[in-house]
UniProtKB/TrEMBL annotation:
This is Transcriptional regulator PadR-like family protein. Pfam families: PadR. InterPro entries: Metal_resp_DNA-bind_regulator, Tscrpt_reg_PadR_N, WH-like_DNA-bd_sf, WH_DNA-bd_sf. Transmembrane segments: none annotated. Residues 175-197 are annotated as: Disordered. Residues 9-82 form the Transcription regulator PadR N-terminal domain.
C-alpha cells in the first residue's frame, strides 16, 4: 500500500490536482502495474484513504456529460508524508515496489536529502552482504543444501543493487535530475510528471 500511496500522492501533487481517472491513467502510462504492482482499483482506494487521512482534499465538480467527479489536491500534511515515503523507499532494502515508487518520485527530495537516503541504502546493502557472506561460509548444517542457492541468488541481486545505488549517488552528486531545491522543480509549480520506467 505504501508504494500506491506514494505514487497517488505524487501524481496528484505534480498535476496540481487530479481526478481519480487522471491518476489511474497516468500510472497506466508509466506501466506502474508492472514495476509497483498497482492495480486500477487500488488507485481509487488509495485516493479515498488519503483523503480520509487528511493527506488530500476532495472537491466535487460537475461531470461534463456524466456524474459528479472528485478533484483531489495534496495537503501540506500529504506533501510531508509523500517526502517521507520517498526517503523510506530509497533507504529500505527488500521492498522492490517501494524502491520503484521512490525512484519515480525521486525529485520530491532535495539533492542533499536524496544522496543521504541513497547512501544509507548503500550502507545497509554492504552490511547485508557481509552478513550473507558469513552465512554462506558457515551455513547451518541442518539447512537443505539447495537453500544455499537462494543465498547465492540474493547475494548476486544485492551486489547488483549496491552497484546501482552507488552509481545513482554519484549521478545525483554530479547534478543529475531536477531535484526539489533546483530551479524548475516541483516546488516552483506544477510540472508534468516524467515516468521512471
Amino acid at each position: 500500500m505504501s508504494a500506491t500511496k506514494l505514487l497517488v500522492l505524487g501524481i496528484v501533487h505534480l498535476s496540481g490536482g487530479a481526478h481519480g481517472y487522471q491518476v489511474r491513467s497516468e500510472l497506466q502510462s508509466w506501466r506502474a502495474e508492472i514495476w509497483a504492482k498497482i492495480n486500477p482499483g487500488s488507485v481509487y482506494h488509495a485516493l479515498k484513504k488519503a483523503a480520509a487521512d487528511g493527506l488530500l482534499t476532495e472537491q466535487a465538480e460537475p461531470g461534463k456529460s456524466g456524474p459528479e467527479r472528485i478533484l483531489y489536491r495534496v495537503t501540506a500534511r500529504g506533501r510531508d508524508e509523500m517526502v517521507e515515503l520517498v526517503r523510506d523507499g530509497l533507504r529500505r532494502t527488500h521492498d522492490a515496489d517501494m524502491l520503484n515508487a521512490a525512484i519515480a518520485m525521486l525529485p520530491m527530495l532535495t539533492r542533499t536529502d536524496a544522496i543521504a537516503q541513497v547512501n544509507e541504502r548503500v550502507a545497509r546493502l554492504e552490511a547485508e552482504l557481509v552478513e550473507q557472506a558469513t552465512w554462506r561460509e558457515h551455513p547451518n548444517p541442518e539447512s537443505p543444501e539447495h537453500v544455499r542457492e537462494q543465498a547465492e541468488l540474493w547475494a548476486g541481486q544485492a551486489r547488483t543493487e549496491l552497484e546501482w545505488a552507488k552509481s545513482l549517488s554519484e549521478r545525483l552528486s554530479e547534478g543529475a535530475y531536477t531535484m526539489a531545491d533546483d530551479p524548475g522543480s516541483w516546488r516552483t509549480g506544477p510540472r508534468s510528471p516524467q515516468p521512471a520506467f
